[in-house]
Specification:
- The chain is about 20% helix and about 5% strand.
- By secondary structure, it is of the alpha+beta class.
- It has a single domain (about 15-80), classed as 2-Layer Sandwich (Alpha-Beta Plaits), CATH 3.30.70.20.
- Strands 1-2 form a two-stranded antiparallel ribbon.
- The protein is globular.
- Keywords: 4Fe-4S, Electron transport, Iron, Iron-sulfur, Metal-binding, Repeat, Transport.
- This is YfhL family 4Fe-4S dicluster ferredoxin.
- InterPro entries: 4Fe4S_Fe-S-bd (IPR017896), 4Fe4S_Fe_S_CS (IPR017900), PSI_iron-sulfur_center (IPR050157), YfhL-like (IPR047927).
- One of its GO terms (molecular function) is 4 iron, 4 sulfur cluster binding.
- Pfam families: Fer4.
């Protein structure tokens, strides 16, 4: 499943540059993750880099976007082929 950023986000700016798919951007109030670009770093890293650097632990899995590792790998292949 893709990740999401919750309201606990403090806009510290550390997650955005860590995303290899450029799925994270500044929203109206807090950072947001584009679920169409989020692969949880599958294809790039073993673990989601944004979760690793977030100082307030506000980047959980999005329960509304369930995806298997295979789905995430297919999304990665599609994104990197473009």
């Amino acid at each position: 499943m893709s990740l999401m950023i919750t309201d606990e986000c403090i806009n510290c700016d550390v997650c955005e540059p860590e995303c290899p798919n450029h799925a994270i951007s500044q929203g109206a109030e807090i950072y947001e993750i584009n679920p169409n670009l989020c692969t949880e770093c599958v294809g790039h890293y073993d673990e989601p880099q944004c979760q690793q650097v977030c100082p307030v632990d506000c980047i959980p899995h999005d329960p509304d976007r369930k995806e298997s590792k295979e789905d995430l790998m297919q999304k990665y292949l599609t994104i990197t082929a473009a």
